[in-house]
Amino acid sequence: IILKPSFVGGFRGTQEWISLAEKHKIGWWITSALESNIGLNAIAQWTYLQGNLMPQGLGTGGLYTNNFDCPLSVSEGQLWYKKEVERVFDFNLLK
What is the pTM of this model? Predict the structure, then answer.
């Protein structure tokens, strides 16, 4: 099943769906479609902690022209956390 945390009750609701899927031996996949980089950052880190080795649908928020800078990037089809990038989001877009 494809799960979008912001549609299914956040991380707690998503965890409930994952538990049900695993109980019934159904594979699951997380998507971050149409999330800002702030949402993507949270979803990506949470998804990593779930330990699912299946490829996930985590994008970079590239659809938005006014998105927040983010320490995440895509390289060779994989999402990477850039440690050298400042970890504080720039909220100047909110002004």
Answer: 0.79
Q: Of 28, 27, 30, 22, which Cα lies nearest the Cα of 6?
A: 30
User: Residue 33: is it exposed, middle or buried by C-beta count within 10 angstroms (0-12/13-18/19+)?
Assistant: middle
2-94 has which CATH code?
3.20.20.120
DSSP state of 35: -
Residue type, position 38, single letter: I
In sequence order, which residues have a C-beta less than 8 Å from that of residue 27 and are 6 or more positions away?
1, 21, 54
For the stretch 39-63, pLDDT in tens is 898 999 999 999 999 999 987 666 7
Residue type, 90: D
Cα separation, 17 vs 1, whole angstroms: 9
Q: What is the CA radius of gyration of the chain?
A: 14
Domains in the chain: boundaries: 2-94
